[in-house]
Design a protein that fits this description.
Helices cover about 30% and strands about 15% of the residues. The protein contains seven helices and six strands, in the order ααβααββββαααβ. Helix 1 runs parallel beside helix 4. It starts with about 50 loop residues before the first helix and ends in an 8-residue tail after the last strand.
């Protein structure tokens, strides 16, 4: 019988390093690849990046440098603000899905389409960048603003979005109030059915941002908008109508239940009471709403924070959308097809933990 030798100790240590490239915040006189000596870690934009949110952060660094590295908190508040045009805030993002396999893998769902929840997160990040471009002036000596997402309206998917064809998002400010900004984002993609190979609108959404004074947290004025083209003027008028409707709806919610809606609700409530009190007599083709309920509890981690140290609104929208998608899938037993979201309201900031 031959002898066997005892194996030597093969334990090895595998180092773990960050897969994120360092954020480079330009500063006067010199550059550093490590931002920690220049900016408190609590003010980093988190590490829950998508390729788009990371690119947008780098695009904003010059405008945000004064805000975070040397905030003039004793400076006077915004007062005389220059008028701006929609073209001054217009920003475009291009997803090179057709040539970038890694990018395609990051956005692909099991059905070879773009993950809508992940796209919503990118839309929120882009809208934030556009609001910064509209409200900030590098040469300004005024106190900086805090710009936060107040609501999202009219998220409409017109056709499924392929993850194998290049995608483009274009956004700009279309309306401005005293302290509110409305930004329209349009997602376009080349569709095979279109013979002229031009990009077609596949998704649209409107984001409402509000400006707050960085010192006292009160509403702050923003730059007025001067539409130039006929389309920009039309978009401004339509947004003005939507803003008036929002004000009226906040004034009284009872008007929502008019024109026969009350009767419909009473009928549904009566059916629900039968389910609860006498289940044997209930309609077998119906189900109580509470029996379709799904929940998802999570601890908000520091990696998911935005530039203000709060949880990134785009992350919350992604989680909400994916929970809604799962709920619809579990209820129907078939793959649901997303059509639209009427509105999303951000009622208060969400902190970590």
């Amino acid at each position: 019988m031959g002898s066997t030798s005892c194996p030597s100790n093969s334990n090895t240590t595998i180092p773990v390093v960050s897969t994120l490239s360092s954020l480079e915040i330009p500063s006067s006189g010199h550059k550093r690849s490590d931002p920690s000596p220049q900016m408190p870690i609590s003010l980093w934009p988190g590490m829950f990046y998508s390729p788009v949110t990371k690119a947008l952060w780098h695009a904003r660094t010059k405008k945000l440098e004064r805000l975070f590295l040397d905030p003039p908190m004793d400076a006077p508040p915004q007062s005389e603000l220059p008028n701006k045009t929609p073209s001054q805030s217009r920003t475009t993002i291009l997803y090179n899905f057709s040539t970038d396999y890694t990018l395609r893998e990051q956005y692909s769902d099991p059905w070879n389409e773009v993950r809508i929840g992940k796209l919503l997160k990118d839309l929120d990040a882009l809208a934030g960048t556009i609001s910064v471009k509209h409200c900030y002036d590098l040469d300004s000596t005024m106190r900086p603003l805090l710009l936060v997402t107040a609501s999202v309206e009219n998220v409409v998917l017109k056709v499924p979005i392929s993850v194998e064809i290049d995608l483009k998002i274009v956004g700009a400010v279309i309306w401005v109030g005293s302290s509110a900004i409305e930004i329209q984002l349009e997602v376009t993609q080349s569709i095979e059915e279109v013979s002229d190979n031009s990009d077609s609108l596949v998704l649209s959404a409107n984001f409402i941002f509000v400006a707050r004074d960085s010192k006292n947290g009160k509403a702050a004025p923003v730059n007025w908008l001067l539409p130039e083209t006929e389309r920009e003027k039309l978009l401004f008028k339509e947004a003005e109508v939507r803003n008036n409707l929002r004000k009226r709806s906040r004034g009284g919610q009872k008007s929502f239940f008019e024109n026969g809606e009350v009767n419909r609700l009473e009928t549904l409530l009566a059916e629900g009471r039968i389910f609860c009190d006498m289940p044997a007599l209930a309609d077998r083709d119906s189900i109580l709403q509470r029996d379709t309920r799904l929940e998802n509890s999570l601890i908000c981690q520091p990696q998911q924070r935005n530039i203000h140290g709060r949880i990134f609104g785009g992350f919350l929208m992604q989680r909400a959308f994916e929970l809604a998608f799962s709920t619809a899938y579990a209820f129907a037993g078939l793959l649901p097809c997303f059509l639209e979201v009427d509105h999303v309201d951000f009622l208060r900031p969400v902190s970590t933990s």
